[in-house]
Amino acid sequence: MADFLGYMFFSLLEGISVYALMFYIFRIDFMKYIGKFVIVISIINLQSYFIREDLSLQSIAPIINLVITIFFLLIFIRLPLIGAVLMTITGYLAFIALQTLIIISSDGYLSLSESQSFVWKGYLVQSLTGFIGFGIGWLLYKFGVGFSYEFEKYRYEWERGAIVAAGTVFLVALGLMMYFKAVFTNLLILLLALLISLIYSIKKDASE
Q1: What value, to the nearest 5°, has the Cα angle with vertex 34 and ends 28 and 40?
Q2: What's the DSSP call for residue 33?
Q3: What is the spatial distance between Cα 4 and Cα 45, in angstroms, rounded to a whole number?
């Protein structure tokens, strides 16, 4: 239980760093959506926890995380497709660059091998990345540094249909993975989360 709680908490700090950088770089108020962020980050971390021992699934975990993030931005934040993809890629790249810089600056003290040997060092890397990433993002937003939010003009009429179609395909793919892989609990969580998101998107579009 302690391992699970530690993993979820410190991964949440990392996730907040990703999303803070993602939004603040594009001069969007991150704190406005903090509740939704915590939910989607927890879902991503939960599925990552369950598949961390499965090397075949670990290789595709980053792709799954990117897809979940894009769907989240499309469905709950209501961003256009181009904006969601661009923000997701930018946020994750900024996060990777920051964490790499922290590890390199430690002169081997927080290296990957050290973090694997000493769990607390891994937690320290996650904490530093979380707090520093959020701090950098907040400062960028406070001083108006970053890209202007003008994605709305790139919204296309076919996007809603494409989102539903892509979501359906992704759900089917996850269903097949559940059938052929022994990671039922993990993929069931993802399946239910995406199904709820898809239903929410359809109802939201219908109400508009």
Answers
A1: 105
A2: G
A3: 10
